[in-house]
Design goal:
Structural class: alpha+beta
Mean pLDDT: 92
Number of domains: 2
Distance between the termini: 63 Å
Low-confidence stretches: none
Radius of gyration: 29 Å
Helix content: 40-55%
Strand content: 25-35%
Number of helices: 3
Strand order of the largest sheet: 1-2-3-5-4
Order of helices and strands: HHHEEEEE
Largest sheet: 5 strands, mixed, barrel
Shape: rod-shaped
Number of strands: 5
């Protein structure tokens, strides 16, 4: 009977974590889940409470800081032109050995093909291989 009560408590705490999102209730829910498994061994109530307290404290002290670092730190925003490498573009002016233009990420860029002997007609889709100064180096998809 005690295992079911601890399991229900774990579910309630996990549901609270969905509302709060700071990983504290998740650690408490995990402690309740550990205690639910331990209660299947027929331990007295005081031992279950000790197991719940110790497992929850250990999870809060050791796992929660790792989760905070992993999931709550903002990712770095790369606004350099090198961030455009690998993105798709549409040719708006034929790319010839002397140059051309592509629409890349909402703006028009001067472009040249990876293979300078190749001509890519307007309307074709290309992928950016490199950014060379103000020129996008592209290849045909």
């Amino acid at each position: 009977m005690g295992a079911i009560i601890w399991l229900i408590g774990a579910l309630v705490l996990a549901g609270l974590e969905l509302a709060v999102g700071e990983f504290t209730f998740l650690m408490l829910a995990s402690g309740a889940l550990v205690t639910s498994g331990a209660s299947l061994l027929g331990l007295p109530v005081w031992a279950e409470l000790v197991i719940f307290g110790l497992s929850s404290a250990a999870l809060i002290l050791f796992l929660r800081p790792f989760l905070h670092r992993r999931y709550l730190t903002p990712s770095k925003l790369d606004t350099s032109p090198k961030a455009l490498v690998g993105k798709g573009a549409v040719v708006v002016e034929d790319i010839t050995p002397t140059g051309g233009q592509v629409r890349l990420d909402g703006s028009i860029w001067s472009a040249r093909a990876v293979d300078p002997a190749r001509t890519i007609p307007a309307g074709d889709h290309v992928t950016v291989a490199d950014i060379d100064g103000i020129i996008a180096v592209v290849w045909k998809d």
